[in-house]
Amino acid sequence: MMSSVLKANPIHDVDIQLTSAEAWDRVRRRLRAELGEDVFSSWFGRLELVEISGSMVFLSVPTRFLKSWIQSHYIDRLRALLVEEFKDVSDLSLSVRGALGKPAQRPSVAHTTEQTQTERSFPERNKVDTIALAEGKPASENDALTGAPLDRRLTFTNFLVGKSNALANAAAEHIVQNTAGEAPLYNPLYVHAGVGLGKTHLLHAIAHETTAQGRRVIYLTADRFMYGFVSALKAQTALNFKERLRGIDLLVIDDVQFLQGKSIQQEFCHTLNALIDSGRQIVIAADRPPTDLESLDERVKSRLAGGLVVEMGPLDEGLRVKIIEARIASARQHQPGFEVSPSVISYVAKTIVSNGRDLDGAVNRLLAHSTLTGGTMTVESAEIAIRDLVRTREPRKVKIEDIQKLVATHFNVSRADILSSRRSASVVKPRQIAMYLAKVLTLRSLPEIGRRFGGRDHTTVLHAVRKIEGAVNADVMLKDDVELLKRMLQD
Rounded distance, CA 100 to CA 104, Å? Predict the structure, then answer.
């Protein structure tokens, strides 16, 4: 009797595996339907089922950040779906897969307890991890507040100053010259600029110079701050995280426009208040002014706007010439025969007007043309070398508020109507068009667009986008209206 039972087990195991795979597919389909394709692909596309053991489902993801984000934002909903779809399951465990795609070995209870105790304390350091990372020293796996590495090349010495960045540079130099213990005059210093205009260079220069003075500095991107806070909550070391962050002399945060999550923004605001009230310096960078950061809490925006807000504008021609000359001099150290005439430099400076990264690309193309062809660099050959970088103008950044106002005016309704819960045809159509344009013309996510349209769900936005996408193909007049609105918003 016993042997017959044992022989039947393999078949039973196969049935369980098939059932588990089907249940996991149902969980994924429900997540995709509830959250939308964009959110699902971003956070759950690489989530995999590892095994089921007793009442526990074991899942894995490829990165620690992905694990922390799911645990912080979606773990309750994921657990509820698993309990509904899997028989006898009551909880889940989420781990990070190894480099070869294999999930980390499931720890025993004793190991888990020991590891949690270890994670509850940060390693003591006299210096902030920013510089340790820049010097190539490894960061602790359990250290939630590890600074982003600094680039040794980004210093005040090679930061080129022109009309567009003179004020920002002067404010930055004032900060590093400020005597330790003296109350900061510009706090926070908020620098905003488009891509490739030098704001990150300036932040690195401030961090380098202040660290050289023996002061405690940490440089973080918004992603690093979010990861550190989520990791601290997970490891139950949030108090250590707060105390350590508030025990520094200078906090530098880059790309603050990417800061997301209500609890994360609340902690960020508390940190700003604590540092400013204790006379510590804060330097922030973003791609737009504080008032235009739609995803940030009003209290955070108010705090950021309360300091010195400085814009680094487009590079003027004189500054572009300086940048090109500096890049050519740097390239000449490796290619002594690389020569570019003043007329070619002037042509490139007049032609490439977008940002510093495109100027770097232009010099690289000139260098390749010179070394590979062996010919003399002329304006005509330079024109050929950089033609793929030539842009007539930068596209205008479109705000959701501008879309709502323009669409409301165009269809003779009010912006309040578009944001309201009214369901009349005269309001629904403009509202859907406005949502569609917000998805097409901005980088905002579906949930964020929904919040900006009266707190609607992301599925409502997705429905509106698909509705207008299908309608413009069948309705010529609607297509013309939408194209006209696009041109008006982008001009």
Answer: 10
Length in residues, the chain: 491
pLDDT score, position 310: 92
Question: 393: how many CB neighbours lie within 10 A of its CB?
Answer: 7
**Nearest-angstrom CA–CA distance, 116 and 358:** 47
252 close to 215: Cβ distance less than 8 angstroms: no
> Is the alpha carbon torsion for 197, 199, 201, 202 positive or negative?
positive
DSSP per-residue codes, 452-485: HTTS--HHHHHHHHHHHHHHHHH-HHHHHHHHHH
> Comparing C-alpha atoms, which of 240, 233, 242, 231 is closest to residue 270?
242
Domains of the chain and CATH, by start: 2-103 (3.30.300.180), 129-311 (3.40.50.300), 317-389 (1.10.8), 400-490 (1.10.1750.10)
Residues 6+ apart with CB under 8 A from 406: 485, 488, 489
pLDDT tens digits along 160-211: 998 889 999 999 999 888 766 677 888 889 999 888 889 999 999 999 898 8
User: How many other C-beta atoms lie within 10 A of the C-beta of residue 181?
Assistant: 7
| Angle formed at CA 154 by CA 151 and CA 157, multiple of 5 degrees | 145
Please state, in angstroms and as integers, the Cα–Cα distance from residue 479 to each residue in 4, 446, 460, 461, 472, following that order: 70, 22, 21, 19, 5
Question: Helix %, strand %, coil % for the chain, to 5?
Answer: 55, 10, 35
Give the model confidence (pLDDT) of 287-333 as tens digits.
Answer: 888 888 877 888 888 888 888 999 998 888 889 999 999 888 888 88
Token pair 């389909």 in the structure block, residue: 29
DSSP E strand stretches across 173-292: 189-192, 217-221, 250-254, 281-286
**Residues 436 and 469: beta-carbon distance below 8 Å:** yes
Q: Which of 242-246, 281-285, 400-404, 417-421 has the lowest mean pLDDT?
A: 242-246
Name the pairing type of β-strands 281-286 and 189-192.
parallel
Q: How far apart (Å, rounded) are the C-alpha atoms in residues 184 and 175?
A: 7
| CB atoms closer than 10 angstroms to residue 445 | 18
